[in-house]
Amino acid sequence: MKILVTVKQVPDTSGKVAVNPDGTLDRASMQTIINPDDMNAVEAALALKDELGCKVVAFTMGPPPAEGMLRELMAMGVDEGVLITAREFGGSDTYATSQIIAAGIDTYGVEDDDIILAGRQAIDGDTAQVGPQIAEKLHLPQVTYAGEIKKEGNTLTVKRMLEDGYMTVKVKTPCMITCIKELNQPRYLSVGGAFEAYSKPLVTMTYETLKDHPLIDKSTIGLQGSPTNILTSFTPPQKGAGMMLPGADKETTDQLAGILAAKHII
Amino acid sequence: MAFNSADIAAFKNVWVFCEQRQGVMMPTTFELISEGRKLANELGVELCGILLGDNVDGIAAELGEYGADKVYVYNSPLLKNYTTDAYTKVIVEAVEEIKPEVLLFGASNIGRDLAPRCAARLHTGLCADCTHLDIDMPNYKGFLKEASTLPEERIDKLGTVMINREPHPVDRDLKMTRPAFGGHLMASIICPRFRPAMATVRPGVMKRRLCKKDVEILHPEFNLTAADIQTEVTEVVKAAKKLVDLIGADFIVSVGRGISKDVEGGIKLAEELAEVLGGVVGSSRACVDAGWITADHQVGQTGKTVHPKVYVALGISGAIQHKAGMQDSECIIAVNKNETAPIFEVADYGIVGDLFKVVPELIESIKAAKAAK
């Protein structure tokens, strides 16, 4: 049994975000982080490893510097990393991305008692599409929005969160589960782990590695293989400055209430 | 003939996936039917709902109130509770058979599970969590002139894109606009080479519009057996606590990190102000992450998008992710100790001060103003 976790290195959009004059994101000037929901997936994998002693393998697709993220995850306890990287894979939308990652996972090998974990969504695109699309390409059942995962033999019982409650779903391995932040509290990397990280195996999969896989075709990967295209990207206009009311006492609040009443807002 | 998503001319009509839970239509469905009606009119085609469930004919007729021409209903005990496998199979086979050119889903926890799976199986494009949709080019350009900082001459020139080195006119493509990078950027996405063009649409953003039609209810044949479903739903539980209805509220009073010195007191003040206004309490992500308030109150990129008549932000600094969820409110009032807080950039009325002092006075002022009417 092993657990495969898909992770993504993303620009940290919680800090200052730089936008180029043409309306695209200035990625070079931004910090990168491990996508937050993916950290919950990694934690869920490591918690299962603590309990069952299974191997945890992290998969990512991205430019070569994403190796640093894989090493960080190894310092937390991940056993092995797979970096999928090639110029041919650049410009992929969610359809093409899941096609490539599914090919990578399939090449690595999925056995009957394996579990694939992913974060619900990445903060750069917020699509939540790649997890389910990988599952589809691998013909595996999926359970998304996992708020709790229990394993008994080859059956997982997942508390699948809904906006107005939850449903309990049972699924057998192999399967794909996507994780939300309510699932757990990710651990910190340990000092010992940081030393070990660089001696753990890291596999690089390039276009050459994957090109003969049935999912990989020029018409299904990269910019050319992406069904969606960006027509325009733009920044929204800043709203005109409002009215700052003088002071912060009863006179101020009376003035505000007066304006709201005069405008029939209250 | 085998289904081919690239045979664009074979596809016609706009479809909306009509999400129901426990036999009750999700409110977003009506928003999508209204929006779908607009798109179908622009394309000059029919608007159809696709509704899956167990004995759900009774709720199909309601869709005619918002402009559906037809509803394809699929009834089976196997469709009573949502499962990815059953719903994907039925929808994909219906699309392969009937071939709609546009397929919309609500971006709910179910829509966002189902739509990507369908798109991957159909080999077509999907755009997540859209906040604006257009077919008609003049309408789209008008939207960009309002909602973007792009120069007018650039907007006027839009019309074709290069797809694999060939010019492609986008007149009949669905233009799917959505926030990216936590709301810092907006992008309009198209799916020029495949059909159906698929989108999940953010709940609460599209407006419901009554538009009565004599809706035709159809029951196409379909194949579904228990063996098609690899997961088992053992229970569906509604949250015991009544969740706050942020999307339907006219008045929202939200709290942020500024309540940290007295969390309970701050929330109590917000509740009192909300009660005087006749509204509900919202919050920033910081308060939810800190465990001060439950996640159903969260406004913003990862919470709810709201556009109430009045949004009062108490002690909220106004991170872009929060602004993305509330900046379209009709009137925004901000109270913050820090005069440089970014929330004041979107506020119609700002008060620089301690919310614990300002809010009690504001409650009295509003009570007095209401009493004077």
Helices of chain B, by number, come to: 11
Bin the helical content of chain B.
25-40%
What is the oligomeric state here?
Answer: heterodimer
Uncertain ranges of chain A: none
Main sheet overview of chain A: 9 strands, mixed
What separation lies between the terminal Cα atoms of chain A?
Answer: 62 Å
**What is the average of the pLDDT values of chain B?**
94
Taking strands numbered 1, 2, ... along the chain, how are they ordered across the largest sheet of chain A? Answer: 9-8-7-10-6-1-4-5-11
Low-confidence stretches of chain B: none
Principal-axes shape call of chain A:
globular
How would you sum up the global shape of chain B? Answer: globular
Describe what this molecule looks like in 3D.
The complex is a heterodimer of chains A (266) and B (373). With 266 residues, chain A is an alpha/beta fold. Chain A has helices at residues 36-52, 67-76, 94-108, 130-137, 191-197, 207-210, 250-262, and strands at 2-7, 9-11, 32-34, 55-61, 80-84, 115-119, 142-152, 155-162, 165-172, 175-179, 202-205, 229-234, 243-244. In chain A, a hairpin with a 2-residue loop joins strand 8 and strand 9 (165-172). The radius of gyration of chain A is 22 Å and the shape is globular. In chain A, 48% of the residues are buried. The mean pLDDT of chain A is 92. By secondary structure, chain B is α/β, with parallel strands linked by helices. In chain B, the strands form 5 sheets. Chain B has a 7-stranded parallel sheet with strand order 7-13-6-1-4-5-14, with helices on both faces. A 5-stranded parallel sheet of chain B has the order 17-16-18-19-20. The mean pLDDT of chain B is 94. Chains A and B meet through helix 3, helix 4, strand 7, strand 8 and strand 9 of A and helix 3, helix 4, strand 7, strand 11 and strand 12 of B. Strand 9 (165-172) of chain A pairs antiparallel with strand 15 (231-238) of chain B.
